[in-house]
């Protein structure tokens, strides 16, 4: 029996999950879990990329202790962030997408190529942390001098395993520089921004075997975690999905990108899928809840938090996607500054957060139906948020759609499925 290893790393934690086929059914076992999170360094938000590398290797060792016949492995993470290289040497720090360093260059980037043209070419929604703004900030500060390559975070971690530099398609699309028409880097954007052309390589598709680590094949999954998550959703119909984690990614599969004016105005994105386009939107997600918990009640189990939110009668809501919630020093104060009436209890804050998320899902589904010209009966929810029956009920009530909650490790499952298919 062949075993496969998915290394799935999110903004707050990572996990190693072994998978195998048993009578046509995918079985999984979590082997190793480790913490992750942004760290402040010289007044910037960064990732401890060396610690992540060590955790990846430690988890592989743990997996091999139990399963000595691991056929292949792959790594997925969040999108947009990357590591610069000078030959084999890492350029530090590895900046986190919530860092504010791009704020001063966004207008300059749009002066080189208007956002309407960027959107027409790539179909990627505006986010201040998109890779193209980060790379332009690197250019302005001289960080690109002597750089020989840049690798998105999961590709960097696999490079440290097998020594092969790779550039996977689904993750590359998150950065705002991949042509929606050709599926390759858009050279006109690169030229307009004055970025070194040699940094942008031919993109590789999920399922590509790139190397080997101690006898285990290293395979590219859909290295953007949402790309793998969508592959892992057992849908029985053409319906919207919500990959509910630190971010909530709400979208639907489409045959090709939708880059019209309505999509741009509503800030919808078109990211690469495994043989299809993911027409989706970023919603602030469990970040709101996790930061409130860290500040208000770090030791309170989520079951108790949800119970208090259900008991609360606080009905005011916020715009869950407002910029003030992206990286506030105090999430509690960000809520207080936005609300007319001030929450009085822990339950009030969390009820407000959950109701606000449900309303943002409702609004996004309405936009989705308008922009695609289709109507949908259901919403499939996977990831950590799928376990929250209260939020699922609020979403169902707000949207009028049937919520199909699948509390599964969809990202790891999708990662594993791609590896298994590559091994056929």
What would your notes on this structure say?
It contains 15 helices and 18 strands. It folds into two domains: 3-226 and 412-422, 2-Layer Sandwich (Nucleotidyltransferase, domain 5), CATH 3.30.420; 233-407, 2-Layer Sandwich (Nucleotidyltransferase, domain 5). The strands form four sheets. It has a six-stranded mixed beta sheet with strand order 3-2-1-6-12-11. Strands 15-16-14-13-17-18 form a six-stranded mixed beta sheet, with helices on both faces. The chain is 37% helix and 23% strand. The longest helix has 27 residues, at 346-372. It has 424 residues and is of the alpha+beta class.
Going across the biggest sheet, name each strand in turn. Answer: 3-2-1-6-12-11
Report strand %: 15-25%
Query: Which bin fits the share of residues in helices?
Result: 25-40%
Question: Mind telling me the CATH superfamily name of the largest domain?
Answer: ATPase, nucleotide binding domain
pLDDT < 50 runs, ≥5 residues = none
What is the mean predicted local confidence, pLDDT? 96
**Level-2 CATH architecture of the largest domain:** 2-Layer Sandwich
Round the Cα radius of gyration to an integer and report it: 21 Å
Question: Structural class per helix/strand content?
Answer: alpha+beta
**Number of distinct helices:** 15
Task: Kindly report the CATH topology of the largest domain.
Answer: Nucleotidyltransferase, domain 5
Overall body shape: globular
CATH C-level class of the largest domain: Alpha Beta
The main β sheet shows up as: 6 strands, mixed
Count of all domains: 2
DSSP strand tally: 18
State the end-to-end distance.
14 Å
């Amino acid at each position: 029996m062949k075993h496969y290893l998915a290394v799935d790393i999110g903004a707050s934690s990572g996990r190693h999950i072994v998978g195998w086929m048993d009578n046509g059914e995918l079985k999984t076992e979590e082997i190793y879990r480790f913490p992750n999170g942004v760290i402040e360094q010289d007044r910037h938000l960064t990732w401890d990329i060396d610690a992540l590398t060590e955790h990846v290797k430690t988890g592989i060792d743990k997996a091999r202790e139990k399963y000595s016949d691991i056929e292949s492995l792959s790594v997925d993470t969040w999108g947009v962030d990357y590591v610069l290289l000078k030959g084999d040497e890492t350029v530090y720090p590895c900046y986190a997408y919530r860092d504010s360093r791009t704020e001063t260059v966004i207008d300059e980037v749009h002066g080189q190529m208007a956002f309407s043209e960027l959107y027409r070419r790539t179909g990627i929604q505006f986010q201040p942390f998109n890779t193209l703004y980060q790379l332009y900030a690197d250019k302005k500060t001289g960080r690109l001098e002597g750089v020989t390559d840049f690798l998105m975070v999961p590709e960097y971690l696999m490079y440290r395993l097998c020594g092969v530099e790779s550039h996977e398609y689904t993750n590359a699309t998150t950065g705002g520089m991949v042509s929606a028409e050709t599926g390759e880097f858009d050279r006109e954007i690169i030229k307009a921004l004055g970025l070194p052309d040699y940094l942008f390589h031919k993109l590789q598709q999920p399922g590509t075997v790139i190397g080997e680590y101690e006898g285990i094949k290293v395979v590219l999954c859909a290295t953007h975690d949402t790309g793998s998550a969508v592959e892992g959703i057992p849908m029985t119909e053409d319906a919207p999905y919500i990959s509910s984690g630190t971010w909530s990614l709400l979208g639907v599969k489409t045959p090709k990108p939708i880059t019209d004016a309505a999509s741009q105005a509503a800030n919808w994105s078109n990211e690469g899928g495994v043989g299809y386009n993911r027409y989706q939107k970023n919603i602030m997600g469990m970040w709101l809840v996790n930061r409130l918990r860290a500040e208000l009640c770090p030791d309170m189990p989520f079951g108790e938090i949800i119970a208090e939110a259900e008991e609360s009668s606080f009905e005011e809501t916020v715009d869950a996607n407002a910029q003030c919630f992206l990286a506030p020093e105090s999430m509690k104060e960000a809520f207080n500054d936005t609300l007319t009436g001030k929450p009085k209890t822990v339950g009030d804050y969390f009820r407000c957060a959950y109701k606000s998320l449900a309303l943002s899902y409702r609004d996004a589904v309405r936009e989705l139906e308008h922009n695609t010209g289709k109507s949908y009966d259901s919403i499939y929810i996977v990831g950590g948020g799928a376990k929250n029956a209260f939020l699922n009920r609020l979403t169902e009530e707000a949207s009028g759609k049937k919520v199909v909650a699948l509390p599964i490790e969809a990202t790891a499952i999708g990662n594993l499925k791609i590896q298994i298919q590559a091994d056929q």
